[in-house]
Amino acid sequence: MTQDHERPLPVPTIDTQGYWHAVNEGRLVFQRCLKCGELRFYPRAFCVSCLSDELIWELASGRGRIYTFTICHIPGNPAMAEKIPYAMAMIDLDEGVRMLAGIIESQLSHIHIGAAVEVVFERLTPDLSLPQFTLCKSG
Ligand SMILES: [Zn+2]
Question: Cα(74) to centroid of ligand 1, in Å?
């Protein structure tokens, strides 16, 4: 007998709704502070460098490299049990921000630190998508 577990979904907040709206449209974005120019990810209400709340969304290329990763053999949530083993990674985007995301790769042994990756979007619901990454074929 199997149990159905619902996958936890992101819950957009007033500070993150712009990010989730873009992701749902297939665009990966990050924040830039208009006062000091610092880049931000994850989305916040204010710049942690200068405390300005003048932040804008900028479009990311969707490309980056794996900073570090792990292969999950024990699901972090029962809803992920059917996906094990799966890879989670810290991705350094080409623009200079770092984000946590899943790596979609059928050959997990191909994943390595420094590997070039590009974003793909996994649709979770009609209103929510989740950025994931795949290995670039050219490395
Ligand atoms: Zn700032």
Answer: 39
Q: Report if residue 6 sits inside a domain.
A: no
pTM of this prediction exceeds 0.70: yes
Residue of 86, 58, 59 whose CA lies nearest to 74:
86
Is position 45 within any domain?
A: yes
CA–CA dist 33, 51 (Å, integer) = 9
Pairing mode, if any, of strands 98-103 and 128-135? parallel
Task: Give the Å distance between the CA of 53 and the centre of ligand 1.
Answer: 8
42 CA → ligand 1 middle, Å: 14
Containing domain of residue 71, as a range?
17-135
pLDDT digit string (tens) for the chain, length 139 residues: 445 678 889 999 999 999 999 999 999 999 999 999 999 999 999 999 999 999 999 999 999 999 999 999 998 889 889 999 999 999 999 999 999 999 999 899 999 999 999 999 999 999 999 999 999 986 5
Report if residue 12 sits inside a domain.
Answer: no
